[in-house]
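Hallway conversation turned thread

IA: we were arguing at lunch whether anyone had actually written out Mucin 2, oligomeric mucus/gel-forming end to end. Turns out nobody had. So, for the record, here is the sequence (131 residues) and right after it the structure tokens. Reply here if something looks off.
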Amino acid sequence: FDGLYYSYQGNCTYVLVEEISPSVDNFGVYIDNYHCDPNDKVSCPRTLIVRHETQEVLIKTVHMMPMQVQVQVNRQAVALPYKKYGLEVYQSGINYVVDIPELGVLVSYNGLSFSVRLPYHRFGNNTKGQC
């Protein structure tokens, strides 16, 4: 949220965003990394995870070259565009986008990098995690 770029090289799941004092039911954004080149200890994103209320969206990188991604909602593969219970998932160019219109939340992922956009009026001074 500070506009800077960070390197996430751990073989783990990072909390990108959670609320300090929850005002939204079960909201969070996470990135699951794995060491894609064990010799260099370089991490690659495996799955972007977005939780909102009763839904958990997984955008999984199935194959890096060529890029192949699978989208799951509550562990079930879904076709895009997906829209249910106030949450939308769609593809825009090379990006896969999770949109939660009522919150003004936009999360995008292209298999290599991600972006999280949250409105300040709803989330300002109430986030924790890597972002």
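OS: looked through it. The helical segments are 120-123.
IA: good, adding that to the notes. The mean pLDDT is 90.
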